[in-house]
Automatic annotation (TrEMBL):
CDD domains recorded: LMWP_ArsC
Annotated GO biological process: response to arsenic-containing substance
Annotated protein name in UniProt: Arsenate reductase
Pfam families: LMWPc
Sorted UniProt keywords: Arsenical resistance
Domain Phosphotyrosine protein phosphatase I: 2-138
Amino acid sequence: MKNILFLCTGNSCRSQMAEGFARALRGDVLTAYSAGVEKHGMNPRAVAVMAEAGVDISGQSSKLVSELPDVAFDYVVTLCGSAHDLCPFFPGPVKKVHVGFEDPPALAAGAASEEEALSHYRRVRDAIRDFVAGLPENLGE
């Protein structure tokens, strides 16, 4: 099993989705973790659209890298620009990869309705699912 960390700014949305999909779709080959360079709490819309996709992330929690167990990560995947820029140092032969996804809360900020807001979350969720489904091969392995 390979250990993978999905890193985002606040560990509230994109990295949580990636962790959930990795556990559901690639749990046979990956042990998934997520964290943030800050801690923003779980995004309720992210939890809702993941449930629509059949993946329950309601038991996951927003956390900092420093709160993770002492794990030797094989892969660290940054999902947003600020996490990529602020990515902490990881010792050992870790492979760092940046795969940027748009920020659903920012996209939904000007939404005229809840349904319109959720449509942004669904689009990013589906893009993350497609990426995760190809792991770890699409990381150059």
